[in-house]
Amino acid sequence: MGIRVAVAGASGYAGGELLRLIAGHPELDLVAATAHSSAGKPVSAVHPQLAGLDLVLGGTGAALTDADLVFLALPHGQSAAVAAQLPGGVKIVDLGADFRLRDAAAWDRYYGGTHAGTWTYGLPELPGQRAAIAASDRVASTGCYAATITLALAPLIAAGAADPADVVVVAASGTSGAGRSAKVNLLASEVMGGLSPYKVGAHQHVPEIKQASGATSLSMTPVLAPMPRGILATVTARPLGDADPREVLAAAYADEPFVHVLPAGVWPRTAATAGSNACHLQATLDVDSGRIVVVSALDNLGKGAAGQAVQCANLMLGLPETTGLSVFGVAP
Amino acid sequence: MGIRVAVAGASGYAGGELLRLIAGHPELDLVAATAHSSAGKPVSAVHPQLAGLDLVLGGTGAALTDADLVFLALPHGQSAAVAAQLPGGVKIVDLGADFRLRDAAAWDRYYGGTHAGTWTYGLPELPGQRAAIAASDRVASTGCYAATITLALAPLIAAGAADPADVVVVAASGTSGAGRSAKVNLLASEVMGGLSPYKVGAHQHVPEIKQASGATSLSMTPVLAPMPRGILATVTARPLGDADPREVLAAAYADEPFVHVLPAGVWPRTAATAGSNACHLQATLDVDSGRIVVVSALDNLGKGAAGQAVQCANLMLGLPETTGLSVFGVAP
Amino acid sequence: MGIRVAVAGASGYAGGELLRLIAGHPELDLVAATAHSSAGKPVSAVHPQLAGLDLVLGGTGAALTDADLVFLALPHGQSAAVAAQLPGGVKIVDLGADFRLRDAAAWDRYYGGTHAGTWTYGLPELPGQRAAIAASDRVASTGCYAATITLALAPLIAAGAADPADVVVVAASGTSGAGRSAKVNLLASEVMGGLSPYKVGAHQHVPEIKQASGATSLSMTPVLAPMPRGILATVTARPLGDADPREVLAAAYADEPFVHVLPAGVWPRTAATAGSNACHLQATLDVDSGRIVVVSALDNLGKGAAGQAVQCANLMLGLPETTGLSVFGVAP
Amino acid sequence: MGIRVAVAGASGYAGGELLRLIAGHPELDLVAATAHSSAGKPVSAVHPQLAGLDLVLGGTGAALTDADLVFLALPHGQSAAVAAQLPGGVKIVDLGADFRLRDAAAWDRYYGGTHAGTWTYGLPELPGQRAAIAASDRVASTGCYAATITLALAPLIAAGAADPADVVVVAASGTSGAGRSAKVNLLASEVMGGLSPYKVGAHQHVPEIKQASGATSLSMTPVLAPMPRGILATVTARPLGDADPREVLAAAYADEPFVHVLPAGVWPRTAATAGSNACHLQATLDVDSGRIVVVSALDNLGKGAAGQAVQCANLMLGLPETTGLSVFGVAP
């Protein structure tokens, strides 16, 4: 008899990936999965890749209280209400943005509405954060863009090797990052064969990225790419001092199971991380401008969402951090 | 200390998938992986998705003899020579075509060269085959097209519900099925955004499909599709009697862990099987022509190659058949 | 001052392609384009590829009466009402299914609702049809699947070389063929990386294909493919007599500007027809089954919709049939 | 009888697009097309999208001297030798890099070998360049990355609105930009479903971009994207003064037929430019960093190669600049 877990918001892409990871996790038992408009349907009617998983989606709120730990994979702004209905003893990992920010004003500016509060930030690779997560009952798992960019940037800023006030990021995401709602601009016909920037100049994840990475000024341009999964972030910053940026990263992540600084000269490819909880990194100095260039790749549904959440849950539950997670991508 | 396994031909796509599955298999220890032109390189230099796997590719022939079981993922025609060098006690699963056919003349006609021989055919879902595989030291794992089409067709022919002399198949494969050699027609620029039939009228896998499925006349048209993985076979046949084809399949596979006959009206999608060892099936009678239409989907590198091979190996080694294999696809 | 044309239903994919073709047509002047929910928007807000086309979409019904010829690119079932409002002297090319069928019962069975009537069928390559179109004021342009399959099949049946009672077709279409409505199953995340059959066993285009090709029994399985444009149809039939199917097709299309029977051994690829009004064909006899196999490729928005409609309009207006149309695809 | 043109290097992707554009150009007659290993083959055997174009590829050097104008679409480093064999009266447009740079040292550093020389730079939208091209017999047409980035950047630097010493670019290209040679890393299996950066920190096109745009320090990271055509460049720069960057661009390109500054808030998408000679631009100030962000999209084979070359040729031949070129993309 394993640890009892539940997923609220199981009909979206992150929810589906959570169900897949939980099904393959040796210590977790899925006791409930809830959804809004899909309540009452078998899981496999919503997620064809889970054919054989014998479970019916419940209505939001149903049966979550029986779980030892609940994953919330809800639309932004809905986590607080669901969390409030859970008994105090139930541990929670929120995959949404609601509890990530410390700065209520930033929440107001980018999301609007009431700031729900601040939970322990769920990125175990940040200094001190692994222990904090393990000691918490409420964790706000990091967002997909924030994970990709923070893992590339935070050690350089912490080491004094990169100027936190001069960071420029272009990050391209696969379409699952845009969610599963039926919108014309997300139709296959519109997306295949092309690249589309969006929310240029003011993306709502900038405050989270600054908070987590230590950057004080950051230009971020997000691009929608014709692939289902993956984020590739190109992070450039003005160097401070003369540290080799690759060595700074390699030292920071030497003991991390999920973050790989690739051999010198080998650059990350998103496809190599698909389906895994790995993040691949590489860095160099640009010959012409002298800027640091770090490229970071991960699976937005893996280390950027569901995998990250399971990693946090493992810590919160006292399990080995890597249980039920793979570092190896499904490629080609 | 687990069972010692090795992979010969580890630099191709099936080889890479084998390494990934072995790395996640709780009972198997990878002791060697060999390659031809990539010998001497770290595995991750050839398979970026396996960053973190600490192994150097050996030259073909090296160190395979230390293994309890060897997987051969070599180009067609090369398995016999490598197998001959292995001690009799080493079990072998061949992913190539060399030992699949019983009919030497068919080998000559489609492949040319000397027919290597006939090993136990590695498709456990065929009647009697599971026990035969478990009792064998040499198994010729089924091919990707043959697995997809045979699983759709064999129970219908065996039940007398489909005419074996009137079968028409169109099957589309993702590009990994075409292998990893550098050819202009396999370049992304040539493949993306289009569909291309190939080897129309005379595909070399037809004899294997007929042998395994019981069909006596079969028209098969293969199509290259712009996706990395997956095969979708549309199998039509003239019905005999009035059995419901979906019910025939559902009865045949009721106890199979990897073959799912989907709920009536739900049709297989290749993406739902990506990265898994599942095969999804659905069948109906065409309203206008009265023909049986079966659609079959699987991952050509999973149930069509590496997953299938591990399933056979599990049987040969006395392990539970599903060990280290997943029925859940990585989607979207 | 050119011939005045208008497009009703200009916000969909076929409508957008019509606008592009009209803009490049030396004899046609676009005087109006209408849409439903997008009325009032500039064309380029709906079709980014037409940036620079200075026209605002009107409401359906507006200004169409000023045109010499109107293209209807409306959802199925809406053409009759719009056509009824146009003066008798206005020529009409309907891209919808409403006026294609001669058999009202078939309309009822597959589409439901009132059968609108029967107009001249707009496939100029059928025997006698070119003159009929040129003499008509009302033309029902052929559908995308029907064009692809009929061009492959009709000459073989007409020549007595193929059995009209034993035809099996599998046809894969790009996503633009499924239209531009916001549906979850058409999202890029769902479509990329996979193949999905749909409407298996009873597709609504079967009656049109039988009517146009002469087939009397036809099994058709449609598949959605991860590409924006293109249809690839694999058409197999039992041969009658011993005519070479490729030669039958080559003779039938020797003088056709838009239908190319490729050199023996070269098989059609959808990408080669993208953006053009070309249809590529190839045929052979299957070695194992003896069946005729014809593969046909075209652009579902080109020869399968907007290009076909412009070809018909050219005939109706007394212009050279190829005016404003290209046989060369945009590839890679 | 039109103007006689020839294409050297017709078997590559840019060569194929040139043939397509010339075939649709009302004033140009194609008299010869040459290739290296494909010499002797019909054009359509190499470019299936040109089925129906009745021409056999000649060996390099053959028959070019009969032309009034020759397009060179050769691998870098080969143009000088071919140009030297042409009579002085033959006009030449070179699509390669050989004659673009004014700085021989930059050539040595990034390309190596002898610097061939410097021809008139073929980007008509640069101030004064249109007239220079019209007066030249030898023109070095701009490269695909340089066209995309220079059109975004040059007016801002020229207007004193952007700091030429602080430019950061991330630019993603479709696979046709990588050429048509058979390399494993360009296989569809490797490219589909992922993004891969390459030549990070030192791309050979940086000197051309700096020369053409006026930038004095430029960090450029190129990324390979899973689409056949298109470049999307995100160009950021520190602003000087308080000019609105979108207005600077709109003023600079107000009369340009091929460069469209989109309506405020609408961002370029590569797919909208496919098959056309258009470049789409948009700009804003990033809220957090204050940096200028310009996004530029074009078809790397169109305005980035063959379309650009035809535009130059039109100028050199005294034809209207837009003859035979379209501003409308083939989408979806």
Lateral arrangement of strands in the main beta sheet of chain A: 3-2-1-4-5-7-6
CATH fold label of the largest domain in chain A: Rossmann fold
The greatest inter-chain interface is formed by: A-D, 54 and 54 residues
Which of globular, elongated, flat, extended, rod-shaped describes the shape of chain A? globular
Q: Approximately what portion of the residues of chain A adopt beta-strand conformation? A: 15-25%
Distance between the termini of chain A: 36 Å
Organism (chains A, B, C, D): Actinoplanes digitatis
Pfam families (chains A, B, C, D): Semialdhyde_dh, Semialdhyde_dhC_1
Enzyme class (chains A, B, C, D): oxidoreductase
InterPro entries (chains A, B, C, D): AGPR, AGPR_dimerisation_dom, AGPR_type-1, NAD(P)-bd_dom_sf, Semialdehyde_DH_NAD-bd
Plain-language structure description:
The structure is a homotetramer of 332-residue chains. Chain A is an alpha/beta fold and 332 residues long. Chain A folds into two domains: 155 residues, 3-Layer(aba) Sandwich (Rossmann fold), CATH 3.40.50; 155 residues, Dihydrodipicolinate Reductase, domain 2 (2-Layer Sandwich). Chain A is built from ten helices and 14 strands. In chain A, the strands form two sheets. A seven-stranded parallel beta sheet of chain A has the order 3-2-1-4-5-7-6. A seven-stranded mixed beta sheet of chain A has the order 9-10-8-11-14-13-12. In chain A, helix 5 links the parallel strand 6 and strand 7. The longest helix of chain A has 15 residues. The two termini of chain A are 36 Å apart.
